[in-house]
Write a structure and sequence with these properties.
binds 1-deoxynojirimycin, 14% strand, 23% helix
């Protein structure tokens, strides 16, 4: 257990915002978003009530996987700007009380990274053991049965040095070998380089995957079809999910904790089992936050969602902070996935995300209810999911081209949605005439206004602390819970439901009209897909509601 005061844990009750830099705002007219655009958008994010931004990969990359194939861990992608721009962004964010998190990709590099170029030079090269090399298996083919993210063998033959190398993603993304001490040393330097510049933390890509089985044993079969349990009929029991990976996070946590303002490690923990998810928090000595994909993939229904929430909170170690998000650049946008574009459901989903205790993560555009965009095959940019499937069918849990959720931010209703002055943005733009920031910003009844109100309520009630969660009895189709001093009633059905009046005052309602009184005294009727937040009868509003943003922070 480390000795940090829990008040330093600014992510408790906070809102993080995942910003896909390439699609956020283009200030140099090349059709790609850039760091200048991120800086220009900070006032909007501050107005919205965001505490920290997580930038999708910003490091130099050949973009075979749009930045998840890093060729220099200490730089900035020239499409986005320079290191000076990054420093400016960190400073500008801090001026507004906001933290900047970067995306760190420690499972693999680009094949263009100098380490791999050197490693591929000869079997005896200095960086050879930075990667996973092996000779052919007994049948003369790949060393074992592991498959990559497209469903093809995870091994590519390297003719010049006559060995296979491992890639759990594309062949241009060779996996690093975490059994090699030099890899640990290299990443220690990378962490410190960015922390020293004022980066507040990292989202860690493929956080469950770093170590591979030392004996390279075959993966067992996976039969449940759960995208989190495996892919292409295999459980990644040996190609990922190895216990030694936890030691890496213990080391990194010591580094994170050595800074006066504790740095945040947020893992992309792609696991099906909530107990396994909990293991990434360790004894408050590993990751401080771990993405909850069982929640992401739960049906937007009761009892599915409440069951995952209860299961998560039961399994997480005491004091661990859960993470609630529902959209990202891989799985798609929740307004489509969960809500089929139905605004009533989008509003209800935002209400739930904002009122669960822990950290809430919004994906850019969630706040205006942006939906997935049908990107025609000829315009698709993502090689790993092009055509919506892989060489072995749609088995990786992404369900279609990932480009659908990476299209430009819809700032206004103009032809290029206020995103770019280039003739053509890098991906097509969704229907920005009906869904955009400009129209919603001044409309008190918009999704954006609801989201902002939710974030402001959340900051006042939860900011800087982990509140308790308690499920309450609810009629069929309903979900009711107490979160800190708030009571939430949600109707997850297409018909009205009658609930017990939670007490006054109702602080927020997803639809304009407040719930009607029921027939019996003390009852209220929630309209289909309506949700409300009330102050629990007898509960007092927090007095010390100053948010971490108002308190500011020092590095
Ligand atoms: C997870 C990232 O979110 C995804 O976009 C990427 O393709 C893979 N990891 C490989 O880095």
């Amino acid at each position: 257990m480390n000795s940090k005061d829990s008040h330093d844990r600014w992510w408790h009750g906070a809102v993080l915002y995942q910003l896909y830099v390439r699609s956020w705002l283009d200030t140099d007219g090349d059709g790609y978003g850039d760091l200048g655009g991120v800086i220009a958008g900070l006032d909007y994010l501050s107005w919205l009530g965001v505490d920290g931004i997580w930038l999708s990969p910003t490091m130099p990359s050949p973009d075979e996987d749009w930045g998840y194939d890093v060729s220099d861990y200490l730089g900035v992608h020239p499409d986005f700007g320079t290191l000076d721009d990054m420093d400016r962004l960190i400073a500008e964010a801090r001026r507004r009380g906001m933290r900047v998190l970067l995306d760190l990709v420690p499972n693999h590099t680009s094949s263009a990274h100098p380490w791999f170029v050197d490693a591929a030079g000869s079997r005896g090269s200095a960086h050879r053991d930075f990667y996973v090399w092996a000779g052919p298996g007994p049948d003369g083919g790949p060393p074992n049965n592991w498959l990559d993210a497209t469903g093809s063998p995870a091994w590519s033959w390297h003719e010049p040095t006559k060995q296979y190398y491992l890639h759990n993603f594309l062949p241009s993304q060779p996996d690093l070998n975490w059994w090699e001490p030099g890899v640990h040393e290299a990443f220690t330097k990378i962490l410190r380089f960015w922390f020293d510049r004022g980066v507040a933390g990292f989202r860690i890509d493929v956080a469950h995957g770093l170590y591979k089985d030392a004996k390279l044993r075959d993966n067992p079969a996976e039969t449940t079809g759960n995208p989190l349990a495996g892919r292409f009929g295999q459980q990644p029991a040996y190609s990922a999910n190895r216990p030694e990976t936890h030691d890496v996070y213990r080391d990194w946590r010591r580094i994170a904790d050595s800074y006066p303002a504790e740095r945040l490690l947020l893992g992309e923990t792609w696991v099906a089992d909530l107990a396994r998810l909990a293991s990434f928090y360790g004894n408050d000595d590993q990751l401080q936050l771990a993405f909850n994909f069982p929640f992401v993939f739960a049906d937007f229904a009761v009892p599915d969602l409440p069951d995952v929430v209860a299961g998560t909170l039961t399994r997480l170690p005491a004091g661990a902070c859960p993470v609630w998000m529902a959209s990202n650049h891989d799985v798609g946008r929740f307004p489509t996935r969960w809500c089929d574009g139905d605004e009533r459901k989008i509003r209800l989903a935002l209400l739930v995300l904002a009122t669960l205790p822990g950290t809430m993560v919004l994906y850019y555009g969630d706040e205006i209810g942006m939906t997935d965009v049908d990107v025609p095959l000829g315009l698709q940019q993502d090689k790993m999911s092009r055509g919506g499937c892989s060489s072995r069918g749609d088995g990786n849990g992404w369900q279609g081209s990932r480009d659908r959720a990476r299209t430009p931010m819809q700032w206004d209703g103009s032809a290029a949605a206020g995103f770019t002055r280039a003739a053509a943005p890098w991906l097509p733009i969704g229907d920005s005439t009906t869904v955009n920031v400009a129209d919603q910003r001044d409309d008190p009844s918009s999704v954006l206004s609801l989201c902002r109100d939710l974030l402001s309520l959340r900051r006042a009630e939860f900011g800087g602390q982990l509140v308790s969660y308690q499920p309450l009895p609810a009629p069929p189709g309903g979900w009711a819970y107490r979160s800190g001093s708030l009571t939430v009633l949600a109707n997850f059905s297409g018909r009205p439901i009658t609930c017990q009046d939670p007490g006054k005052p109702v602080l927020l309602c997803t639809t304009g009209a407040a719930p009607a009184a029921g027939n019996a005294a003390g009852d209220i009727v929630l309209a289909p897909w309506q949700g409300i937040v009330a102050r629990t009868a007898g509960a007092r509003q927090r007095q010390d509601a100053a948010s971490t943003r108002e308190r500011g922070w020092n590095t």
